[in-house]
Amino acid sequence: MKILWVNANFLHPTTKGGQIRTLEMLRRLHKRHEVHYAAIEDPKSPEGVARAGEYCSRAFPFRLDVVPKNSPRFVGQVIGGLFSSLPLAISRFYCREMEQQITRLMDQERYDKSVCDFLVSAVHFPRLERALLFQHNVETMIWRRHTDHARDALRRFYFKLQAKRMYEFEAQACRRAGHIAAVSEQDATTMRDLFGVANVSAIPTGVDVDFFAPPANAPRETSDLVFVGSMDWLPNVDGVSWFADEILPLIRQRRPQCRVTIVGRTPPKKIAELAANDKRVVVTGTVPDVRPYLWGATASVVPLRIGGGTRIKIYESMAAHCPVVSTTVGAEGLDVANGETILLADTPQEFADACLRAMAEQELRDRISEDGWELVRSQFSWDGVVGRFEEVLDQTPSASC
Known about the structure:
Elements: E1 2-6, H1 17-30, E2 34-41, H2 47-50, E3 58-63, H3 72-80, H4 88-91, H5 96-108, E4 113-117, E5 132-135, H6 139-148, H7 153-176, E6 179-182, H8 185-195, E7 200-202, H9 209-212, E8 223-228, H10 234-254, E9 260-263, H11 269-277, E10 281-285, H12 291-295, E11 297-302, H13 312-319, E12 324-326, E13 343-344, H14 348-360, H15 362-379, H16 382-394
Parallel strand pairs: 1-2, 1-4, 2-3, 4-5, 5-6, 6-7, 8-9, 8-11, 9-10, 11-12, 12-13
């Protein structure tokens, strides 16, 4: 097949779960199909375009000045978002040149199939009714959860407004799409119920078990607890803040020397200050490889209260033989069993108790690590996931009129 794949960004450096999912799938699809990849390039990361040949036959980069969230200009975008019909999470990535070029490509190249990767890419897609909309999250649910956990009335107002606009945009995109790929059956059910669509298929999340397997000389006991996730994604910031403010003090009551490592790119000031104020906390920022941090930790924590889709970081931890403590939201959509392949806890005290058990009970750690590893080894290889994706792509209307 000849496939047009449209995304909001290139896939290197690979620092986010959605990037990992897309990259691993495209690498395998590229071996069997001709893939044309269109995305916004980041001038600060030339690696993105330079390495696109690893997963596509042709790359179409587009320039857009995406304002960083830590820039004063972003405040202006937030204020402007009060008066836009589009949610800010969509409008800040709109590129008119990209929209026009994708229209030309679809007219000229006669693609067999087209993929709109992530909801944000729908703003550039001229014929979504002939495309597969690849939904890594149900974005509306994320913004509604932001509203539920807002710290004050002003944030609650803004999140509620953005949630309303996201619902309107997401519902329209899902209803227009030729077919929809969800990353879990739970997300697929949510989209059917929330948006009134029937053409939704679930595709599981995969993991490269061999890549994450700890070598004999892997670092050990470098940290008690580790969190891995992009720190420029608001649900991760909320989760880590909640952990530091409400859970870690409970852990320290019984384990005063508990060491915590927070691994992820672009931590905001309030996350970086956790390390400045506590020598037992390490905030790494961007790292070249997350695996040593998983290999060296006693347990991996996923204290998310806001989110959607599925957490690749959980399967990666399992593949690294690192037991996982997560909230129910953090493990949402994954095929996990509390007390067998993972420990689930939703209140600060329950989460603290689960962490303390994981740190104190070697037998529990070994059992959960082994069962979690066997789960991902036997059921969630990327080759199997890509086979399922191809089946869903076959159900999608032809990209050509």
